[in-house]
Design goal:
The complex is a heterodimer of chains A (186) and B (116). Chain A is mostly helical. Helix content of chain A is 72%, strand content 0%. Chain A is globular and about 55 Å long. Chain A starts with 14 loop residues before the first helix and ends with a helix. Chain B is mainly α. The longest helix of chain B is centred in the N-terminal third of the chain and has 26 residues. The chains are: A mainly alpha (186), B mainly alpha (116).
Chain lengths: 186, 116
């Protein structure tokens, strides 16, 4: 991997490229009903499958690093921008995802909170729950190791069980995963 | 409040990119990243399993709501449909169905609609 983040086919980055990235994340932000992490499958479709902005490996690394590092979850968006188009990409993607959700979503959540006795608001909240769960599962599926990597898959299954059934701190699991991986056991 | 952790994360990615170019470092670093990615995937699936518990008490009933979650998963992960379609199509249908059930329930007085 190149030491500095690369762009598409190493072509020079244009303002139009940055505007495209910004537009993607602006649109995604408006669809973030269950948090930014539920947008990951659509981000993969837009950035990796259709746009060719970054490789599948870099996409997975961006999400993994952001999950492992302290700070809000939404920061994986900055890393996706970084691997797609460097520092300018990181800033543009973060701006795109944050701009609507900090203004519009704040107003929307207040509006909803004041009307939570409304049947339609309750129906929306309850109705979206299965969809949100499905989107989150798709996110996990997308970054999960391939079936050929048996030991990595075993690690994922073990972590899933621990997160489900225990309250073990994520940082210990990340440290264990990084150590096992660095030693070449994953 | 988001600038500091973001700067830290970008610095980490930048350092990682440079460190992987050093002789002898690429293997262990790639391995560590692979391990972290496996943990991240497991963490997300573990969260799904925890979040699936409320589906058991869903208005639509446990089998249907879990089936809808599985359908949303398949449409996104396997068929790679745009999120907007899934939200408007499947999400819209689910919301309308939930609304009709909630309305019928409150009309029958089976449960007040005033609780969250």
């Amino acid at each position: 991997m190149a030491p500095a983040p690369h762009t598409m086919a190493d072509a020079p980055l244009t303002l139009a490229d940055l505007a495209t990235l910004f537009g993607h994340f602006l649109a995604l932000s408006l669809m973030s009903i269950g948090g930014a992490i539920t947008l990951v499958p659509d981000m993969h479709r837009r950035l990796v499958d259709d746009g060719g902005w970054l490789s599948d490996g870099d996409f997975t690394a961006a999400i993994a690093l952001a999950q492992a590092a302290p700070g809000p979850n939404v920061l994986f968006v900055a890393l996706l921008g970084w691997y797609s188009a460097g520092l300018a990409g990181a800033l543009v993607c973060m701006l795109g995802i944050m701009l609507p959700s900090t203004t519009l979503a704040l107003a929307a959540s207040r509006w909803v909170a004041n009307r939570r006795h409304w049947l339609s608001v309750q129906a929306f909240q309850a109705g979206m729950t299965p969809v949100t769960v499905g989107l989150l599962l798709a996110t996990g599926w997308l970054i999960a190791p391939s079936p050929t990597q048996a030991r990595a898959l075993l690690l994922s299954v073990a972590v899933a069980g621990l997160v489900w059934r225990t309250r073990v701190r994520l940082i210990w699991l990340v440290a264990a995963g990084a150590t096992l991986g660095a030693l070449g056991w994953v | 409040m988001i600038a500091a952790p973001m700067a830290l994360l970008l610095l980490l990615a930048w350092l990682l990119g440079h460190a992987q170019a050093l002789p002898g470092w690429e293997g262990p670093l790639q391995g560590a990243l692979k391990g972290i990615a496996a943990v991240a995937a497991g963490q997300i699936v573990g969260t799904v399993l925890r979040l699936a518990a409320p589906l058991k008490n869903h208005v639509l009933g446990a089998p249907l709501s879990m089936g809808l979650a599985a359908l949303a998963f398949a449409l996104m992960a396997l068929f790679k449909l745009p999120l907007l379609w899934v939200l408007l199509g499947l999400g819209g249908l689910t919301c309308v169905g939930t609304y009709l059930l909630l309305r019928r329930r409150s009309a029958h007085g089976a449960g007040p609609a005033h609780h969250g």
